[in-house]
Amino acid sequence: MKSNLVFTAFLVVVLLTACEKTDGAEDVLIPNTPKSEVPNELTGKWQNGTFAMSNWWSYDGKQYLGNPYTRSTAFSFQKNGDMEFFQVIKTFTGTCSTEGFTTYKGTVKFDHANQSFTMYPQSGNFRGFYSCASGSNFNRPVKKEELKPTTFYWSTETDSNGQKWMVIKFDQQASSQGTYFKPANW
Fold first, then answer.
1. How far is CA 121 from the centre of its chain?
2. Is residue 39 within 8 Å of residue 79, measured between CB atoms?
3. Is there a contact between 170 and 7 (Cβ–Cβ < 8 Å)?
4. Where are the chain's structural domains?
5. Residues 124, 148: Cα–Cα separation, whole Å
6. Which tens digits make up the pLDDT trace of 69-124?
7. Contact in structure between 76 and 104 (CB atoms under 8 Å)
8. CA–CA gap between residue 180 and residue 164 (Å, rounded)
9. Which helix H or strand E contains 156, and what residues bound it?
10. What does the alpha-carbon distance between residue 162 and residue 70 come to, in Å, rounded to a whole number?
11. Residue 63, pLDDT score
């Protein structure tokens, strides 16, 4: 649980730094970032997502209004070291909806000695939507200073049902809990 909170906090910081509007911003591309071949066991698409156990219905109970909270994170690793990262966060109060969507494209470099990988974003986009404050909506490319490398520690696990999981941590401590990603297709 603590690890999921840390991971969510990291993603909220990404979303909040994206909230600044920039009209006419140009797409940024940082070329030639480090990369290495992706291990076979991680090549492909991985997704983690959460949803609230409650839902919003109209007072008469006839119209579904939405889920109060949703978060999904995904990585896509190509064998050659190219990667993509996606983050979606949505909150709904029963009246207003706030949504954030972050994407990064870049490269990934694996450090097998430390069982880690570093994501090197080369470009990206931040998008925010506020249904009750549409003047605050934005959709902009990531600024160069926002394209910072991030290191994750990883392992894989197979559960008792035979489901394979990629486990991501922000530190190497064996006691820290990880965030679990399952193989995905999109």
1. 13
2. no
3. yes
4. 2-21+37-49+67-183
5. 11
6. 889 999 999 999 999 999 999 998 878 999 999 999 999 999 999 999 999 999 99
7. no
8. 10
9. strand 150-158
10. 26
11. 80
Residues whose CB is less than 8 angstroms from the CB of residue 122 and which lie 6 or more positions away in sequence, other chains included: 29, 30, 31, 33, 105, 106, 107, 147
Answer whether 0.90 is exceeded by the pTM: no
Phi/psi region, residue 66 (left: phi>0; alpha: psi -120 to 50; beta: rest), is left
Reported as type and span, the H/E element at residue 130 is strand 116-130
What distance separates the 2 farthest-apart alpha carbons in the chain? 59
| Chain center to CA of 15 | 10
Residue keyed to tokens 């909506």 = 137
> In b/e form, how buried is each residue of 67-93, taking b as 16+ CB within 10 angstroms?
ebebbebbbbbbeebebbbbbbbbbbe
List the beta bridge partners of residue 179.
168
133 φ, ψ to 5°?
-150, 60
Instruction: Provide the pairing of β-strand 44-51 with 69-77.
Output: antiparallel
* CA gap 10, 107 in Å, rounded: 20
The residue type of 26 is E
